[in-house]
# Entry
Amino acid sequence: MTPSDVKATLSFSDGSPNMDLPIYKGTVGPDVIDIRKLYGQTGKFTYDPGFLSTASCNSTITYIDGDKGELLYRGYPIEQLAVGCDYMETCHLLLYGDLPNAEQKASFTARVTNHTMVNEQMQFFLRGFRRDAHPMAVLTGLVGALSAFYHDSTDINNPEHREIAAIRLIAKMPTLVAMAYKYTVGQPYIYPKNDLSYAGNFMRMMFATPCEEYKVSPVIERALDRIFILHADHEQNASTSTVRLCGSSGTNPFAAIAAGVACLWGPAHGGANEACLNMLGDIQKMGGVAKVGEFMNQVKDKNSGVKLMGFGHRVYKNYDPRAKLMRETCYEVLNELGLQNDPLFKLAMELEKIALEDDYFVARKLYPNVDFYSGIVQRAIGIPVPLFTAIFALARTVGWIAQLNEMIGDPEYKIGRPRQLFVGSPTRDVKPIGQR
Ligand code: SDX
# Structure
């Protein structure tokens, strides 16, 4: 953080003393006004529900330029990472700050691969769930339950513990997501097979059965690996902020990541990919492309409560670069699988075209986000719709861990404890029940 030579001066119309507030500059992006001394000097809080104008931390991990539609992981544009790297390289970049060379990549991948199994006891947690439980309900429970096993990596303030917990979480998420899926379809769990790639291992744990060998399709393996890269991190989004706030109490890394999984599930956040595909399915049932106009009218009618899922973003007021890459992946995968006439893909592209020409969306700078096309790709490669958000959680785990470790590694970090504007009842006395 570089102090700016510009100061902010706060003045009050009631003649209260002015206050100078320091401004700090980052490498790129908006400057920040440091208000840490505001309450101490003025007795006033700032007020910013939803944090539209609040920077909660300083970070070196991910930068988003919402106006330009740019996304950088440790300075590398997502477009270059998605084409020139794989998910293991991206994990190394997010965790340690740089892309690995061949030797570092091999060593990192080997460490992750050697932690893909979960404790055999974990399978007994699943028996407590109904078979029709949502996979995110199961995953939230399983990730939190990891802290019941790995006592040698639960001290978040111990760098060695943080390191091994990071490797364990990245390695075990695919195994846990696949177990959550197998439980819902009544099939036996498939153990990881460590001569496969990260994405290939996951597909095999999802779709192999003990009755026959599963051959990993290179098309699907590559598409899934790219999906993981595109979802790996995204600055201080709701679930990452949840992980940071949760971790700031000193709780163990597994519990903090479980909090992130729970937050991501919401339809306004990671749950949007599942909601978007269900929305496309509903429009298809209504009559498909011919009914898009009618659906859009519902979206623009505030009273309908209907949103165009997969559209809009708190930060991107331009096209989400991940949505562009996801659409390209959609195109490639559907063509390679001979599904180029997939009706939902055609419907999605028609919806996008209409929305981008409609003043309601243009005026509000609403563009497709990462969730708009991700569901179509995942459905095309055989991922069941209820698993979409679990895949998002799987991929985002490395980002959550990198952000959590960055916070814990900052000597200045404190437990997060926002304040409030109290608008409730002033002090009043309790009356005996007979007088209430
Ligand atoms: C993710 O933060 C991240 O980085 C998240 C994420 C990540 O990688 O971690 O990028 C992943 O969560 C992507 C977002 C997925 N969610 C959806 O696709 C759900 C649909 N989108 C909306 O719910 C909404 O756009 C949000 C939640 C994403 C953003 O909400 P904001 O920033 O609070 O914006 P807003 O709700 O104030 O919207 C501004 C206006 C409003 O209309 P007015 O009151 O000004 O008339 O735009 C409208 C909204 O009603 N609007 C939409 C809309 N999104 C916003 N109208 C119709 N359809 C939509 N999708």
